[in-house]
Design brief:
The structure holds two protein chains of two kinds. By secondary structure, chain A is α/β, with parallel strands linked by helices. In chain A, 34% of the residues lie in helices and 22% in strands.
Chain lengths: 333, 147
Amino acid sequence: MENNLITLKSSPKILSSYSVAGNKEHNGPLGNYYDEWCADDKFGKSSWEKAESEMQRRALRGALKKASLSDCDLDLILAGDLLNQCVSSTYGLADYNVPYLGLYGACSTCAESIALGACLFDGGIISKCGAITSSHYCSSERQFRYPLEYGGQRAPTAQWTTTGSGAFIIGEKGNVNIEQVMFGRIIDKGISDINNMGAAMAPAVIDTLVRYFDQSGTKPCDFDLIVTGDLGFEGSEIIKDLLLGEGIDVRKNHVDCGLMVFNRETQDVHAGGSGCGCSAIAMASTIIPNLSSGYLKDILFLGTGALMSPMTLFQGETIPAVAHLIRLTHSEE
Amino acid sequence: MKNKEYVEYVSARSKKSPILMNAVRAFLIGGAICSLGQAIFEFYSVFNSDIKETQSLVSLTLIAIAIILTGIGIFDNIARVAGAGTLVPITGFANAVASSAVDTKSEGFVMGVGAKIFSISGPVILFGTFSGVIYGVIYYICSLIWG
């Protein structure tokens, strides 16, 4: 098997992270940890799309302020969201005078943008960049499912798109080290149910994790946490079960951002949260600060994305998925 | 694991929608909506003796209620519990049209509301009209044969 584990020799760091969340997320288990939240899910704007853009704008502004930087210190912005043509990112970040690359990796975009930024830093191409991702329940629901006020029932395996945006500044100083990166392969195991995205994405996580443990020579117990993006309850149970069959036991230290952001018992989100804002706000508000403080020392983060569109689903296609891995460690400076 | 095996594995383990519970709720809430319709009918009958006119007025009243509840954001909360109970009566159709209209307002009245108002209910209108035409043709042929 070829080696596609990337070890970053120049140790890029995450300088700062900033999270902006919606009201339902604020009422969830991580409610007190978000840097900013808004009771009005429209964030004072006239449409849901503008609201999502506003979240990205605020997230980057907050992350820059935390790192005591201004936008002219950045060499590049890597950003993405779930909407067609990545419009939340372009409209939200247009005011910043920084070269911009729009990314689409569905819900894996948070990991994708951080991983790409770290690789560009490692190659000496940039010295500082911003990685920003967002999703909004209302704008996604409109694009991928039904009108917001449409009266329908959800399947128990369905997930709830997170309203939130997370921004990360990557550069050379900081306490969170980006040690290794492994990009995911496109994996399609034949799931076509849009109400069971966890099951569609789980095989991609398994593929990346198996390759990672094989090529890095590490074991799950070497890490404080193995964080997945938005597998939700269903996908999390599947990876724990199937990885065990491969002799890899992640039951003790696996957490999923989709299960961290919402309380499944009380918030009526069925299998948990999803969307690229889901892993972005969970990482920016909770995981990164704990790595920075040294409470967490060594973790794996896998961004998980389901790469279908409503059109391909209507045409009877199955759901391809991808999972990008980043190894993050605490570094004393 | 092959794709077919994985799909079977997933469908065997994933929690299914509680069909019996959903059916009971749909029966109770759908029945309540129909009883409400009947009550409105009785009430209107006091003022109007034309049965056909009164029946149309009852449908219009239920549609109006469904649209108002959709507009103020309550209908989807009821439907989440009621399921087919609110979907099958005329209220479901009204909600499908009204929710599309509310949702697409941000794209303007022509390209938004105008173009997308029937995005959910369109298939019902198309195939409803189509089956009406077929029914009419059959009815016509039968009436020619048997007078």
